[in-house]
């Protein structure tokens, strides 16, 4: 019960921060190192093509300075590449936790390819740092054959599954620690959600369903795939909608905490986004409540738009200076004027929902 109350309090805190115009969430790509070869994302190519770039990633002391100078984040998402390929990932979490006294949600998506290593790091985070909600998601894009095909490597399904098993065990001992899986839906794997759930049931992992995230594969800056035409193929929307509706049924039947309500709203609006871009349905928090930082300290409005709003190395690691600068404020005004065609990526959709609870409830359930 205390987790549910904590979560509710966190959502209220986020909503108030948004009213005050504070940046409350960051998506920080801690590395672009990646040991997969995914079909819908090109991050794995970054260091294959330019290995020397890996040396430019922010080091821990620089990261510490960033979060000491801007310490008002309530929600931090550490993404990548594969975040667990950063040997100092736990130190990064630790400096963020020490600096941001209001930190309430930490989420880390992983491909789950290093089961025992990830379990050890997750244990350190759960045991040593008392962050109110730690949420780890492991990617699963279908059953074994589909997942390995999507991820471009032969044996990653079994590793991802082992990681889920291990993290699931860990979550039984730490009530603030939740594990889920993330299904990235694209024209390459549409129709694979049912077989995936059937497999998870076979392995006795039925309760993971309530924490499943369906992400529509997007083209965008973080994914280094802006020219990937296959993802813009709209012919798969009917099949995709069927998969989303399937998950919605199970989410609706287990509406028991604030997070499940947010997920339900997210899925309702995802369905709408599939049939037509969701532009203007909800005010977007990019460059007002949230932003994206890449591994080299460049600040973007969100994970999709490829527009650098400032560089942390050039501003003495002070995000406040970037927030006040012209580029940032003018992007914020453009977003208010509806410049963007819209996206419905969970990294941005979830904070937008939490920041506008009544409006999103109204839009999702009473219709627009
Ligand atoms: S989706 Fe994740 S695992 Fe796949 S290439 Fe992109 S960063 Fe790597
Ligand atoms: S709607 Fe917002 S989060 Fe999505 S691409 Fe546009 S600016 Fe980025």
Topology overview:
Layout: H1 2-19, E1 25-29, H2 46-49, H3 60-69, E2 75-79, H4 89-99, E3 105-110, H5 115-128, E4 133-139, H6 144-151, H7 156-173, E5 177-185, H8 193-202, E6 213-216, H9 237-252, H10 258-275, E7 290-293, E8 298-300, E9 310-311, H11 319-324, H12 326-336, H13 346-355, H14 357-365
Parallel strand pairs: 1-2, 1-7, 2-3, 3-4, 4-5, 5-6
Antiparallel strand pairs: 7-8, 8-9
Helix pairs in contact: 3-4, 4-5, 5-7, 9-10, 10-13, 10-14, 13-14
Residues 34, 36, 38, 41, 43-44, 80-82, 111 line the site of one iron/sulfur cluster (SF4).
Ligand list = iron/sulfur cluster
Q: Show unreliable segments.
A: none
Structural class: alpha/beta
What number is the mean pLDDT? Answer: 91
Helix percent band: 40-55%
Give a short summary of the structure.
This protein has 368 residues and is an alpha/beta fold.
Note the main attributes of this structure:
alpha/beta, 9 strands, 14 helices, binds iron/sulfur cluster, 9-stranded mixed β-sheet, globular, 368 residues
